[in-house]
Amino acid sequence: MKYKVLAAALLLAFTARGVQAEQVGSVDTVFKIFGPDHKIVVEAFDDPDVKNVTCYLSRAKTGGIKGGLGLAEDTADAAISCQQVGPITLSDKIKAGKAEGEVVFRKRTSLVFKKLQVVRFYDKRRNALIYLSYSDKVVEGSPKNALSAVPIMPWK
After folding, report:
1. CA 120 to CA 134: how far, in whole Å?
2. Which residues belong to the signal peptide in this entry (predicted)?
3. What's the pLDDT tens digit per position in 21-49?
4. What is the DSSP string of 34-69?
């Protein structure tokens, strides 16, 4: 049973959606003598299925020796803000959106078991896209989350 869970975790870790975030900037939060400092990193990514929507994530990044080697587990703290940056046209797939949403971004926040995810929902009644960011683990996730809404407006 343990091997099945480990195999599933490894498969999830290596099949994450291919959307890449671009680092916009960062600030140090804790000085570390050995290894990089703890930071808050600000990253941007474009919704892969909705042209002209850009999301900005701020998230904690653990430093120190483990962080420098990529072995540290980042905390579940993150915030998100998404903006319309041009005219939006929704595909039929999005208009028929699922109640559980669609994952549009994933980033590992530990060596194997933890990841930060962004899920998109379409609110047909209010004509808006909703983006939810949260962190999860194979066994236990975190209730910490952040939300951003993008009203679909005519572009001027």
Report:
1. 12
2. 1-21
3. 899 998 888 787 888 777 889 999 999 99
4. SSPPEEEEEEEEE-SSSTTEEEEEEEEE--HHHHHH
Are the beta carbons of 149 and 90 closer than 8 angstroms?
no
Is the pTM higher than 0.85?
Answer: no
pLDDT number for residue 49: 92
Q: 59 falls in which pLDDT band (50, 70, 90)?
A: confident
Nearest by Cα to 21 from 118, 95, 112: 118
CA–CA gap between residue 123 and residue 98 (Å, rounded): 10
Give dist(CA 151, CA 130) in Å, integer. Answer: 9
Query: Which run of H or E residues covers position 10?
Result: helix 2-14
Answer for the pair 14, 46: CB distance below 8 angstroms, yes or no.
no
CA distances from 113 to 13, 72, 74, 136 (A): 7, 11, 11, 8
